[in-house]
């Protein structure tokens, strides 16, 4: 591909901010990304969400590719590069432990998300608030065969997170607490956004000097470590600061547009 470089965009807290009721990219963000593409840059989503939870409003941006599920899945120009899943034996051990401790969970697959009870209040609350699309969820699955890249766990209280971390520490899994209630993520530790970005840069033959990324969360740290220019959105996680090349404003104050202009990419 003949291009000047590549720009990766996180979703939640970067392109949109559902905590503030911003469920779609703003007009300015859309125009800025269109201009970026016109100027010869590839644009790729890099999100913790699975592919099925990328909304129509995000898809309408017409990005060149997707890195989903914190780097476990990647595609470019509609061609899947890799799609890594949690080993089913390990998955079964984790899910049994969650159930024994009354921790509600969602399994994220690229095509569907899987739950035990689609009418569970905690599930409905999270799906509604994060605009994940209840039509993407199913109760029809089996622990022995289901393909999932990440487990979203909704604990009873703040102790649930520590309980799970202590139980599975050192078993090749990563754990990340979220800002939403007692929600936390469980995924294979070697698959991060940084891993996905690195694979994509290598495949496309793009030097990190020409790679940019916008993000705000803890799971953007590894991505910022891989690209030369990591731009932290307003309201960023404190752990992201030392890895940021520069800073911009939040979604509400047109951080993408302002950041791209400051970088002189548009």
Question: Nutshell version of this structure?
Answer:
This protein has 266 residues and is of the alpha/beta class. It is built from 8 helices and 14 strands.
How many separate domains make up the residues? 2
CATH topology of the largest domain: Rossmann fold
Rounded to the nearest angstrom, the distance between the terminal CA atoms is 20 Å
Helix content: 25-40%
Main sheet: which strands, in order across?
5-4-3-2-1-12-13-14
Q: β content, as a range? A: 15-25%
Radius of gyration, in Å, reads 18 Å
Global shape: globular
Q: How many beta-strand segments?
A: 14
Order of helices and strands: EHEHEEEHEEHEEHEEHEHEEH
Are there runs of 5+ residues with pLDDT below 50, and where? none
- The CATH architecture of the largest domain: 3-Layer(aba) Sandwich
The CATH homologous superfamily of the largest domain corresponds to HAD superfamily/HAD-like
Q: What would you call the structural class? A: alpha/beta
Kindly state the mean pLDDT as a whole number? Answer: 94
* Total DSSP helices: 8
> Class of the largest domain, according to the CATH hierarchy?
Alpha Beta
Overview of the structural elements:
α1 (27-38) runs parallel beside α8 (255-262). The two termini are 20 Å apart. β3 (65-68) and β4 form a beta hairpin. The strands form two sheets. The protein has an eight-stranded mixed β-sheet, sandwiched between helices. It has a six-stranded mixed β-sheet with strand order 8-7-6-9-11-10, with helices on one face. It contains eight helices and 14 strands. 28% of the residues lie in helices and 23% in strands. The longest helix has 13 residues, at 88-100. The chain has two domains: 5-83 and 191-262, Rossmann fold (3-Layer(aba) Sandwich), CATH 3.40.50.1000; 88-188, Hypothetical Protein, Haloacid Dehalogenase-like Hydrolase, Chain: A, domain 2 (2-Layer Sandwich), CATH 3.30.1240.10. It is α/β, with parallel strands linked by helices and 266 residues long.
